[in-house]
């Protein structure tokens, strides 16, 4: 428990009015997310979650492959018939989803109540709201004022990084929410709350296995009281058992994941570039106020416990992903460190509030807070506009349009050549789907098998795909059938058997 748990009276507003305003703000935020989100199978991640959710709902972790009659799965290059989000099972007959089961489990749980269209949508919107609230709750738990908590919540809510991954079916925001919930519950330190913290930790790990790193901040939060650790483990045990059972059923061993061997993607060679990437993009994505977090060791003497808990989580997550190859590639790959973002915000708030309270004059404090809020809002407005975050849902809806167009223009028995849309199409239609990017020179065998079976061949491509697919991977007499936005459907004119 922090020594200075009670905030300064200078930061105490009329709580009733603020609670009412905050409730309205969260409701409006949820409505914004509901309107602009597109929670559906799309690219590799989102289609992977939906396909696994359907597997879970059907009580299985494998799905039958859809090979051509004369070119079996065991005879083809490994991923020929594996859409994005799947891997071959090894039995020559089935495919296995590659993604962790946590978010698909939530989707599958919501679907019987709300349907597959609205259930996952509700799941993602509720997580978006919960993440914002948890920043406020963590700030109050650390002894910060109501106003500081509200500012921190707003910092997360308007972050383009947070919004981008709240508006599509991705696991990054749920991974943030369950991690933050685990830390908040552990901070309450009562045995009942610690049991719930264990459950939240279990769900965080089911959603993203790297959230096992929560062990360090939880150790700091709970101390060495063995009763709390028994409570934590008892709460997390069901999720641990479920993950072991799932991994054994899906991949044959308890410690495997669908990602395969990712060890080669981690190297100290990437650390310097990633740290520069953090320094460049975090002030843009979370506002320049986040830079105050760097001074946490110097300014948070009265919040030592919270500083240790959240500082350890920041260092653990950011340090772990500093060595990951993809983290530094683009700004939105900072989604990997989203679980640590509430702690980053809290660290900045601890420093900033201590600086504001250093001034005796209320007018000076008001000026500083007003300047900070204006800068934060202006920064968020600029970068959300720059990245067109409000268009994320619209852009994702092209995948449902791909399914709709396929049903309208492609026969149900036809072979579909695809890559970027392959996971969504596997979810939405029953056609055999061939990944053009995995053929390894086997295109003539695909053509031969299609001709022998009397199956027409079609393609569903984003605009960047034919440039590589047609001349190199799938040459032939392709005719464009229909085009919508950056998506097009094509038909391949197959030569007759006598040609």
Molecular structure report:
This protein has 499 residues and is an alpha/beta fold. It has two domains: 44-99 and 397-493, no CATH class; 102-393, no CATH class. Helices cover 57% and strands 7% of the residues. It has helices at residues 15-36, 44-57, 102-141, 146-157, 160-164, 172-188, 191-207, 215-222, 226-251, 271-286, 296-299, 304-322, 341-356, 362-386, 392-396, 398-409, 422-428, 443-453, 465-473; strands spanning 63-64, 86-88, 94-97, 415-418, 433-435, 457-462, 477-484, 487-493. The strands form two sheets. Strands 5-4-6-8-7 form a five-stranded mixed sheet, sandwiched between helices. It has a three-stranded antiparallel sheet with strand order 1-3-2. Helix 4 packs across helix 13 and helix 12 crosses helix 13.
First-last Cα distance = 81 Å
- The H-and-E topology, N to C, reads as HHEEEHHHHHHHHHHHHHHEHEHEHEE
**What is the mean pLDDT?**
91
Main beta sheet strand tally, sense and closure: 5 strands, mixed
Low-confidence stretches: 1-13
Number of domains: 2
Helix and strand composition category: alpha/beta
Coarse morphology:
elongated
Give me the number of helical elements: 19
Strand order of the largest sheet: 5-4-6-8-7
Helix content: 55-70%
Extended strand count: 8
β-strand amount: 5-15%
Rg calc: 25 Å
